[in-house]
Specification:
Elements (H helix, E strand, L loop, with lengths): L5 H12 L11 H7 L9 E3 L8 H11 L4 E5 L4 H9 L3 E4 L2
Length: about 100
């Protein structure tokens, strides 16, 4: 999961762990991108859009250069353009807010 809101990241992590789902979290988009290069096989990426350093929508093409990992967008953004861009990037959208 790439999420810069540490409190929200902890809530999501705790919830997923209750279903025996192992979660690795980073608040840095570039760190998350480099983690895809590791030998560990990730099955899903939960991606926040409002991140430091780079917008989540700008990060998706960089992720796609390295991996076809399924991506779920977790964001409080409700702008229709953001949703269209996310869907065009072949990701699932879950809104909060």
């Amino acid at each position: 999961m790439i999420e810069d809101d540490l409190e929200l990241a902890q809530i999501i992590t705790d919830y997923l762990k209750s279903f025996d789902i192992e979660v690795t979290t980073t608040d840095s988009p570039y760190n998350g991108l480099s983690m895809l290069n590791l030998s560990k096989e990730y099955q899903l990426l939960i991606l926040d859009l409002t991140l430091p350093e780079i917008d989540g929508l700008e990060l998706i093409p960089k992720i796609r250069e390295k991996s076809q990992i399924p991506i779920i967008i977790s964001s409080a953004r409700d702008d229709i353009l953001d949703k269209v861009m996310g869907l065009r990037s072949d990701v699932e959208w879950i809104g909060f807010g």
